[in-house]
Amino acid sequence: MTESRKKVKGKYFQMTWEGKYGVKVAERDPATDTVISASCQFCERFDRENESADRKRKRASNVKYFKAPWSSDNIERHMTMQHLKKYEEYKAAEGNENFFVTTYEPLVVSNDGVNMLVNKCIVDKIIGDLLLDTELTMNT
Fold first, then answer.
1. Which secondary-structure segment (H or E) carries 28?
2. Please, what is the average pLDDT of the chain?
3. Domain containing residue 120
4. pTM of the model
């Protein structure tokens, strides 16, 4: 391998990897705007997939961050070893850009207090159960 090839290999994060592998830029150098780290969106959204029960140690639950030297092989190895089913779904999907989009923010914290967005079906069930419970206790 030539000296110039060694210097170039793995120096820069390829922005196409965001769409291809489901990673996103997590940190940039403020002075040069180059990517310092990228995070696995599968780890953030879906956790890691379960393996067989004969494992001796618990599987890691933290988010995987990739750093320089950049290698698409490392990213792909992580995807196939930790998120095989979801990664296969992701590769098969036509529009990958919406794969990680959530329709609501699960928790919003502000100075006014804590606001939570909850699915309508869940609210209807909880409110319905509360109303039914109060009606039953009032009638008895």
1. strand 23-28
2. 76
3. 103-140
4. 0.60
